[in-house]
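STRUCTURE REQUEST FORM
Protein name: Glutaminase
Source organism: Amycolatopsis thailandensis
Requested output: structure tokens
Priority: standard
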Amino acid sequence: MDLAALLDRIADDVAPEIGRGAVADYIPALARVEPRRFGIAVAEVDGGVHGVGDWKVPFSIQSMSKVFTLALALSHGDGLWARVGREPSGNPFNSLVQLENEDGIPRNPFINAGALVVTDELAHHGDAAEKLLRFFREESGRPDIGIDAEVAASEAENADRNRALAYFMASYRNMRHPVPAVLDQYVRQCSIAMTCADVARSAVFLARHGVRNDGTRLLGLSAAKRINAVMLTCGTYDAAGEFAYRVGLPGKSGVGGGIVAIVPGRCAICVWSPGLDARGNSVAGVAALDRFTTLTGWSIF
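Status: completed
Returned output:
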């Protein structure tokens, strides 16, 4: 399959969707991003990378980072699952509602409460954001990947809801490190700036069932399968069912406008377009992935 030509066609097909939706204005630094940006990249399991549009323009990865911190945490064992569930939440990603009813155990690792627990778990092994940066630099081959300081400062100034989530879980003894330290690491991990190509290359280990770009194994087959499963059921906030219906791939979105998706055995895809729908997912990004699976016939179903 000529992936380069395919991506050109997808970009043309979704052009009417680019610029639709609204940027994440509750984070001031993200509110200033040009909404008509669009890029898509595909990293194949054999190492090939293809892209079109703004696929080499860095953007804030935001909640896409949660996939990678989960993988790094699980590389040290699966004890994490005693602290966070694996079910869809059915509520907004920053909701406090379910935590009280469920004794401080977040529904899944991709809502904000669950991601804070994952960061707290990874912090047992050093600074979570620094571990994540090291992983991205190694997998992408780009040692200059870093944290967008403006975005990090903006998020830190607007982190009251995340702070409330973390302290609430701490009251149930589901935080092991001081809340300010965990929040600092969490904000920095979400504020990492990467291109579509960087993200796709960094995620392709999930298409290889846990094997990194250098041939070493990060995760066992079972752990990689389970991350893909949780991405499918929980990765696009409370629109995961609609995403599974339209796209049919494990995916994880971020309010920076990025979505990373996995075709097991074939490739990882990253698409970026900052305009978000009411659920916080990229309008043009979902449309592009829908076209990708329609044109290729690649899905997990």
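Reviewer notes: The beta strands are 39-44, 49-53, 59-60, 146-147, 192-194, 251-253, 258-263, 267-272. The chain is about 45% helix and 10% strand.
Form closed.
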